[in-house]
Amino acid sequence: MTAAIESTGLGRRYGRQWALRDCTLRIPAGRIAGLVGPNGAGKTTLLHLAIGLLEPSAGSIEVFGISPRRNSKEVLAKVGFVAQDHPLYRGFRVDETLELGRRLNTTWDDDVARSRLARLGIPMSKRCGDLSGGQRAQVALCLALAKRPQLLMLDEPVSSLDPLARREFLQELMTAVADTGCTVLLSSHVLADVERVCDHLVILSNGSVQVASGIEELVSGHRLLVGPRRTGGDAVAGAEVVQATHGERESTLIVRTSGRILDPAWEQHEIGLEDLVLAYLRNTGAGTMPEPELAGAGEPR
Amino acid sequence: MAAIAFRLDGRSGVPTYRQLTRQVHRALRLGVLERGDQLPTAREVVEALAINPNTVLRAYRDLEQQGLVQSRPGQGTFVVDVPPGPSLGDRQALRRGLERWVRDARRAGLDDEGIDTLVDVTLRDLASEEEIA
């Protein structure tokens, strides 16, 4: 299976400060991957390294097996990028913006762009600066999609949008994926959206990859345990504790396990993605998760 | 228009593909979906719910493996079977038994939450018994 993005020991330093460090991950083609982590975790840096806006300070990154810095033309032809806050030339009209995209890109599907915007009721004659936030986001998405990218990367695409515009944006994005089968990598703080649209997850914290996995494997590999509080630590046979919270008599643990917990003292529950992500974000020492084998699970079409 | 429209409970913690398969199971049991009915196309579901297309395909693949639906290339996904379950008569008898039990439980002082907990614990205990057996 080809990887859309593959990085090995990837790092980027600004002065003495490492924004991203020893980042090794693989995002298979056909996935919709979510990139989450606190502000300053290195999400934007990773995206910028993947499109070749930044040069790695260490290690390497490849997009469909090609280096985005050394072969930037080749990579840019395959990649669409929607930067944070959907920057557009505010003085340009929508049709002028499309014309700019058409002239600047080697591949450009003007019909796709125009019919998409018409369906959304976005007038061609309006200046981008006069559009609503949701409309600007849709125009930015439209520009990225008109390139017919094999990989679409979006930096916080919905963070500035109201709930309705957010949903409409994701509808457009998911419909586009259904139509084209492109791979997506999007960073977001909205975990509910990530849960809704993504099938792959990368958690970054303090510039390191904490988790990189298919979401189904990730969720099925964790359990929420409730049981009587024990003296002598939180160890559970056959599992690694990600988070432990204690009452005086009862403990709640989030554990990573490859099988079932056999100890009958623990009441076992499935855990939702949002709670799981929060547990990892809270406990940044919970260790880097090795990339699990993805064979057979949730294969892309 | 397709026979059913899917909905999602974002707070349930149940994986999306399983929410979709459950809704189909439920619709089949209730007779809302019958043999020959067409499920919404993947694209329709994606457009309506803003979810990952792979998730819809995953749900449909599961249903196909269960022998309940069949995807016909270029046409769509159709219901071909209804899941085996108790007959109508059995179901009514079970339901009457359950009503009796719920009344007993209320008389014994259990509220709805207490009943929920007891049902959960019992299901779990029986499940682990079966696993050991």
Task: Describe the structure in your own words.
- The complex is a heterodimer of chains A (301) and B (133).
- Chain A has 301 residues and is α/β, with parallel strands linked by helices.
- Chain A folds into two domains: 3-212, P-loop containing nucleotide triphosphate hydrolases (Rossmann fold, 3-Layer(aba) Sandwich); 217-282, no CATH class.
- Chain A has helices spanning 43-50, 72-78, 94-104, 110-119, 133-146, 163-180, 191-197, 215-220, 273-282, and strands at residues 3-14, 17-28, 32-36, 58-63, 79-82, 151-155, 183-187, 200-205, 208-214, 222-228, 239-246, 250-257, 267-269.
- In chain A, strands 5-6-7-3-8-9 form a six-stranded mixed beta sheet, sandwiched between helices.
- Chain B is mainly alpha-helical and 133 residues long.
- Chain B folds into two domains: 16-79, Arc Repressor Mutant, subunit A (Orthogonal Bundle); 88-132.
- In chain B, strands 1-2 form a two-stranded antiparallel sheet.
- In chain B, a hairpin with a 3-residue loop joins strand 1 (69-72) and strand 2.
- The A-B interface holds A 30-32, 167, 170-171, 173-175, 177-179, 192, 195-199, 216, 219, 264, 267, 270-272, 275, 298, 300-301 and B 8, 10, 13, 15-16, 42-43, 46-47, 49-55, 57-58, 124, 128.
- Chain B: One of its GO terms (molecular function) is DNA-binding transcription factor activity.
- Chain B: Pfam families: GntR.
- Chain B: Residues 14-82 form the HTH gntR-type domain.
